[in-house]
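Researcher: Structure for this, please.
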Amino acid sequence: MRLKVPFTRRQWMSVSPSIFVFMSGGMKIMETLITSYVSDSFNVMSSWFFGCIIGGFLGALGMEYFPKKLFYILASCLVIVGGIICASVPIVAPLIAAGYLDGIGFGIATLLTIVVGGENSNSNHRGKVVSLDQFGIAIGILTFTIIDTIYVEFFGFDTEWSIPETIGIMSTLFGLGGLICCYYTIETPVFHLMRCDEGSALETIQFLHKESSPSPNSCITLNSLRQYVHEDRVRSKTTGILQGLTPLVKLIFLRSIMTLTFANPIPATYEYVAFYGFQVSWVSIFFGLARLLGALLSNIVLIDRIGRKVTLLGSCLAIGVLFALISSFIECTTFHGDCTPFERPDLMSLMASLFIILEFFCGVGQGVVTVYMSEAFAPFSKGLFVFIIMLAENAFVILTYGVIMSDKGFSDLAFFITLSVLFFSAFVMVFMTMPETRGVGLRATRERLRKKINIGF
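Model: Predicted structure, token format:
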């Protein structure tokens, strides 16, 4: 028997501290990848991504033993401290330290959102809760583009007030917002069931469903989660790990290529073509706004109503086509052609428009992969597998940025062509191997994602 469980604000409030941490992280992503006002930009950039890896490891190591509220508080406090350092001493060494602190907080929040959001939300609204991470990141990216535009348009480079100081102040405020929201966090029912405490699990479900007493909805949810935990408890750890390898490989690939849409050549090239195409710098705001609108549309409408698979297929196809178009136009710019930007402002504005559309579809697709991560693994090994995916994606970004910074034959054209091929490959892989998991419980989604072939919708 299946009953429709209503969505309540308490379900997404249980991950609300993470949203503020992700806002700070979105600013840091843009700050570290496109800014040139620090001398040791690679170490400043890599410190944040190494921090994400450390934060993911800490979260995976301790979330089964300690209340998740403590990790939310820790993540928010790290963001606050990192922001204070960044605002107080905006030079290279403190910026690296601030990057580590903010990155650790971001890594902890990422892992918690995937685990807590997936286990605290009902099957019909899981995507709406878990994909809030991309919504927060998109807000952070938009915030950075606004700060950068204000700094360039109104203050210029003569002012004593620097962008790192402003980013530090905003990060501190976001961290305080996350710390306040820690009050609304609640332990997941799966956490209690893993300790054979069904009474506390039922109380948690009732709280999340906003019920004063046990109802058929609560009992059905409890029974489903009980089976989800029991199946993992009775099988050996080796079997559980082996069963998780198939979705692990799929999600490492998808998450890594989606993360590459944050890579330096994309925002840097956009700023270049947008400036020469429109002759003003404030259009960079549209870059952040487009990703925010994509994440918002995906969160509210697409993931839980249209479906994960269709949304991800459309996103991968659109991104692949857009990268192919951008690659073809790059031949006529100063990167690889004979004409100057001043001779072809129409081409520059067209390319800038393509980048804006590209960011929209990146915002649409990124959240879907996060939702799949919350559904793919068994409860006792979920933290480990999510950390492995986080390790792979952040290491991939650090390696890619290292190649870019080395300046040894790196080509923007080759980079965009490669991404186009990767996203077309992702389209084929999603069509052939990824299932539709909309409206399905965690036990069933895990079984579907374990299959190597999933052509149906």
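Researcher: Any notable elements?
Model: The CA atoms of residues 235 and 241 lie 10 Å apart. The mean pLDDT is 87.
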